[in-house]
Amino acid sequence: MLFFGRVISQEKQVRLTSINFEIETIGNNAKVKAIHSILNESNNDCNVSISMTLDDESAVTGYSIKTVNGEFESELKEKEQAKIEQSDATTNGYSSSIMEQVDDTTFSILLGLVNKHSEVTFSIEYLTHMEIQEEELIIKIPNLIESKEKYQIPYSIKIIGSSKFSFKGILSGEEEINVPLNGDLIFGMKDEDTDEVVISSTFINKEKEGDINIIFICDRSGSMYGEGINALRNMLQLFLRQLPLKSKFEIISFGSKYDFMFKEMVEYNEDTLKNASNRISEFEANYGGTSMDAPLKALIDNNTEKCHIILLTDGYVDNKINTIEYIHNLSKKNSLHGVGLGRSCDIELIRNIGRIGNGISVISKNVNLLKKEVSKITERILIPTINKCQIEWNIKGEIIPKEINNFYGMITCYIQCKEEIKEGQKIESEIKGICREKEIIYKNTKNIKITKGVILHQLMAFNQIRKLEVENKKEEAKKLSMKYHILCKETAFIAIDKTTKKEVEFIKNIKLNEMCHKQSSLRPTMFFDSCCENDALEEDMSEDEEVFENESSKCELLCCNCGYHPSVEYEYSNGTEDMSDSVNSPVTTNITKQIAQPMINLKSYGECSNLCGEEKKEFSCDSVNKEIVFEKIIKCQKADGEFVGVQEIIKEITTIQSNNIDNEVIQTFFVIQLLKEKFPENKVEWKLIVKKSENWLASKPAISEEIKNRIISLTKLIKL
């Protein structure tokens, strides 16, 4: 994943004008320099901040700032020392910049003063892994949301190293770029200062997609009332229809109490889908507290194994120590994934569920994006898990990670060599495990070429730091951070510009958001983007303006002077402004395509009668949220992938009939085309749904080209 920062300033005229990525690849490892051009068009000198959210696979290694006075590189310091130096610099009138890790996902960068009518360049450097699919690197670029954005933000990518590629575009939504993967998946590097040699080896799970065992543990405590429980219901309805036939599943609800939907894992088929779907539609937030440990203990007592366990909560759980202990226990035979919902979830716990449980962690701070985030997990875990993995090398050294209980996607392992490695020496690495009762062995072999550098050393150290932070071993994590120049919770980067000096009183008068921070450090629980006259705020949210995390972007409705919405609820932070949601969540805005033909206005919709069991409702297209239509369509899919009852939602489908083709075949083909045509912003959610439907259609008599064209034309005419 590529990441970039979001500009935070009290002046609306301060904006990001371009972002350029310079990437050096070593197999699927990448050293990234993200160069931000920031322009201050206002009539005031002002402080500017950058907020940035990274995933678990990325390590920050430094940043620099370039102004008319020159370029200033940052230095890594212990966090307290960095803060002291920054305070001293400010007291003496110097512009200073500091970057620190706010929490498990968020990095805060105070750039300092940007002069009026001037431009600065801010560059952040980090290491990350690229995903690999079918011999290609997948470069993901998240969306930078700017509500009512007046400026298009161009970006460029230049890749050198084992892969080479150049690309230019405009930031307009989540994008994926495929780049040919050149070279092997095993590399060696030597640190010229210490002579340390580290070799990395990346393994890719090549098992085919198929049925899985999956358990969803969902929070139904009182805090889920309202939007939370509604988002949970809709997400589970979608989740059920993403599962392959013959999978086994269970849904557990918890709060102060817990219960299993079924007495044991059940096979996924039409009967169990209908049963689960009807019961989910009745879910309420009426389980009291948030005791996640109890259902986890029940799974341990049931000797649960070979399962993917997804845990969702919107708050801080009771008995956290027990919860972590049970996650450790279950991770020996299962993969656990954490989903945080809303703005009050325990981010540290969610991250630890994925780290300890050998799984995935996501935080969806906008409830409307829950389906999207869980769909990403579902897609990745459909590849069968390889369990009880062992790593072996034909050389001696310290292997990191030492244990891999579950391997379901792609993993990079490292060895810090304890013997001299000669140029051209044959290096072999092997991962061995069990998948579906059979032994799986993947082996990487290469006559090694040792290059100069520390990228692999830093990635290896980052893996260790992450583990130490989970274990609360702060001093050990700090030592590794300082040794390998990697940002962690106990360190910070600082840069000081001593070429210019401002009057101290002047600096005090233009502190960022001073009016909002007189008594304490506050942060809003929600941001929107708007401009207002005489500080009056206009709330004009369209359905395109989504507020979200992952990874984390925010729309902002800010007070023009101080940057804060006076009517929005604020919560106390730990003294550092938390902009954790400002960037890097994949999202796609809702853009209705303009079509030359006259549009059909749908007059009525109803609930799909075959699954939901809810009272049918009539409503006008003009008054209904497009997302509701999407949810109703999804509920019409059966377990095998076919769609039925769609005419209850979009009656125009009844205009297409054929004596030679079953109605279910026509409806299924229609829904596939409709989703692609009218719901491109929901692709992450319907991707697995469509794949299942296409597989079902492949087993049926082919539709004539004439009928296909009529259906495709109809989908273009429908107005949503």
UniProtKB/TrEMBL annotation:
Name used for this protein in its record: VWFA domain-containing protein
Pfam families associated with the record: VIT, VWA_3
Natural source organism: Entamoeba dispar (strain ATCC PRA-260 / SAW760)
Domain called VWFA: residue spans: 213-386
Annotated ranges, domain VIT: 1-128
InterPro entries xrefs: VIT, VWF_A, vWFA_dom_sf
Recorded superkingdom: Eukaryota
